[in-house]
Design brief:
Length: about 140
C-alpha cells in the first residue's frame, strides 16, 4: 500500500492513537521490516540500517509531502534513560527523534554514538596543549 492510499484510508492523526502493525520494505537497505519485535506499537525505522522515512511533521500525523529517506545521524539519551535516534532527511534536512526499538542493530547504534568521539573537531595529539590554553595544567593524569 503506498502513502497516498494510506492518507485516503485513515483519518488525519490516525497513527497518533492507533498501533502501526503494517510491514514495509526499507527504502534504504531493502529488508522487510515487520512490527513484531519493536517493543512498541509504532515501528518507525528499519532495525537493520536504522533509516526512516520523512512522512510526518509531528509523530503519527503522516502530513509530510517530502517522503525522502531519513538517515540516522546521532543518538541521545532521554531523561528517563531511554535512547533515541536523531534522523536527518536527505532531501530537506529536517531533523526528528525516534525512540530506539528493542530489536535495533546494536552495532549500528554504538557506531553512531561513538562517531563524535572518533572524529573530534581538534587534533587529538594536541589535547594537552589545548587543555593548558584553556586554563588546565595540560597534563593527562592516569
Amino acid at each position: 500500500m503506498n502513502r497516498e492510499n494510506k492518507k485516503r484510508k485513515y483519518e488525519k492523526g490516525y497513527y497518533k492513537n492507533h498501533p502501526c502493525t503494517e510491514s514495509f520494505i526499507c527504502k534504504n537497505c531493502g529488508r522487510l521490516v515487520v512490527s513484531a519485535g519493536a517493543g512498541s506499537n509504532h515501528r518507525n525505522h528499519c532495525p537493520n540500517c536504522l533509516c526512516s522515512m520523512h512522512v510526518d511533521h509531528e509523530p503519527g500525523d503522516r502530513e509530510s509531502d517530502c517522503g525522502s529517506i531519513m538517515d540516522p545521524v546521532a543518538v541521545w539519551v532521554r531523561k528517563n534513560g531511554e535512547w533515541a535516534i536523531i534522523h536527518r532527511c536527505r532531501r530537506c534536512g529536517a531533523l526528528s527523534s525516534n525512540r530506539v526499538a528493542a530489536d535495533d542493530n546494536p552495532m549500528k547504534l554504538m557506531s553512531i554514538a561513538m562517531k563524535p568521539l572518533c572524529s573530534p573537531p581538534f587534533p587529538l595529539e594536541r589535547i594537552e596543549e589545548m587543555t593548558a590554553l584553556m586554563g588546565g595544567d595540560g597534563k593527562l593524569h592516569g
